Amino acid sequence: MPGELVQEMCARLGVSQPTDLAGVTALYRAWCERVPFDSISKALALREGTLPPGGDPTDLCERWLATGLGGTCWGHTSAMAAVLEAGGVRCRVGLDRFLVDDRVDFHSFLVVEDGDRCLALDVTHGSGDPLLIEAGATGNHPAYPTEIVDDGDGRLLHRFVRMSRGIREIGTYAVLSIDLDAADQRTFCEVSRTYGMRSRNLYHRRFTATEMIDCCPADDGSALVLRHVSSDDQVDKHLADPEEAFAAMGYGPAALDIAIRAGLIERRTDGTVFYPPRIRD
């Protein structure tokens, strides 16, 4: 990735270009807070029949700088790796498989070496500080518990806990690899056309130091629900006006047009706005 783009990303994130673990941690925390995990760019790619973002790290960086849009896991992984590798930090890509019976869902995260240890930087499931890839490791984000456990047969499982509509959900991934390279990354971007997040509704997630912030359509499609989830509280705000909702999520004006083109927001002839509600991916 061009050095000027790396420098601009770090400047906008308010961090120095990382060269050591302290710098890596600062970048990861700032990235989770400012660069959202969202469905919009992938939804547009699927609608237009193009390759979902993630193979070229400049895509996410240039789009975020211009519009505030982030992307799904593959885009975050390649972009953050490019920023870190520019400072000499060695990175690889990790691959998880979501353990559910009704679909196949692959997920990526960034792997950074720290001596003889490997650390996971996962933007989708923020762990506070980078998460040690070792059985018994736990994240330290107060609102979003994460952990690495042994399944009893020597396989590592990556788990997270979140609240969804008042219900405590535990998600479990099997760690398939922590040694993918750029060619593997591009291959799984192609695979993600069929397997993984289908991006049929609008979704947005970020992590501040104390909260998980997410946004998705209300059940009836009448508004977007912006949630601030802390360790002991949850505040929901229904936003029917798309301009207000997108500003609250930190997006620029161009992002709304992209979401409309992607089919995630419908402006109807009677003047109302409809947000297609969640369809199980």
Would you mind describing this structure in some detail?
The protein is of the alpha+beta class and 281 residues long. The chain has one domain: 2-Layer Sandwich (Arylamine N-acetyltransferase fold), CATH 3.30.2140.20. The chain has helices at residues 3-13, 21-34, 40-48, 57-67, 73-86, 182-191, 242-248, 253-261; strands at 37-38, 91-98, 106-114, 117-121, 131-132, 146-150, 156-164, 167-180, 204-207, 212-217, 224-229, 234-239, 266-267, 273-274. The strands form three sheets. It has a seven-stranded antiparallel sheet. The chain has a five-stranded antiparallel sheet with strand order 1-9-10-11-12. Strands 13-14 form a two-stranded antiparallel sheet. The longest helix has 14 residues, at 21-34.
The CATH class turns out to be Alpha Beta
CATH architecture: 2-Layer Sandwich
How is the largest sheet built, in terms of strand order?
A: 5-4-3-2-8-7-6
Report the major sheet: 7 strands, antiparallel
Distance between the termini: 32 Å
The counted number of beta strands is: 14
Strand-residue fraction? Answer: 25-35%
Q: Characterize the overall form.
A: globular
**Average pLDDT, to the nearest integer?**
92
- What's the helical proportion of residues? 25-40%
Rg from Cα: 18 Å
CATH topology: Arylamine N-acetyltransferase fold
Low-confidence stretches: none
Order of secondary-structure elements: HHEHHHEEEEEEEHEEEEHHEE
Number of helices: 8
Domain module count: 1
Q: Quickly give the structural class.
A: alpha+beta
